[in-house]
Amino acid sequence: MTSHYQLEGRSDAPVIVLANSLGTTLAMWQPQMAALLEHFRVLRYDTHGHGLTSKNDKTSLPQLAEDVISVMDDAGVKQAHFCGISMGGLTGLWLARFAPERFLSVTVSNSAAKIGEQSGWLSRARSVRSDGMDAVAESAAARWFTEAFVKENKAQVDELVAGLAATDAEGYAACCEALAAADLRAEIGAITLPVLLIAGQEDPVTTLADSEFMQAQIPGSQLVSVAASHLASIEAAQPFTDALVKFIKQQEAR
In this structure, is residue 11 part of a structural domain? Predict the structure, then answer.
């Protein structure tokens, strides 16, 4: 498997790793880049089977997490802060639980210790394998954003939906299967790293209640909610970025 990543910023700055959501690429983090690069070195990557990252025969949540370690190793990054959204956030929970020595903090946005139901993910995997990505792409805007944001930001939403439609169906399906099997509800109480949870107040996929559950389970974790649906880093870009930068700078100051 070949992972595509970009490492940008001052070589002496703390590193933050950014993990994209299902059906997007590292480009989804563009709204955060200017602010992050003022303070940090930024390592973005395309997740398994997405963008320019190839897919191998084994896809699971542990594999998605090990991909992050491999990217960090290849980039020469020993320790980093981490921020992931949706599937990327679930990946971050696994890393916080099982590879804490590589991370300084973990931010989990629009995610859950278990996302959705197994049957739904397996059904979606079968659907894209048989019928392609069009049906998933057609309904994506309503899952990702509030109706008002879609109306007011048509070009931006259309670009993201087009990217989803162009995603490799097999890579997407494999990640759906990884999500179907992923359940960290019994594990997250053992996380000891600093954790920030960011929730979209109108997120129907990973709800505010999902983040409240994680906050209750993870000792010392912080929760920030923003006025957004599922892709809060895009819909509420400024409040999202402000919360992320503030949290990481707090950890750096300790």
Answer: yes
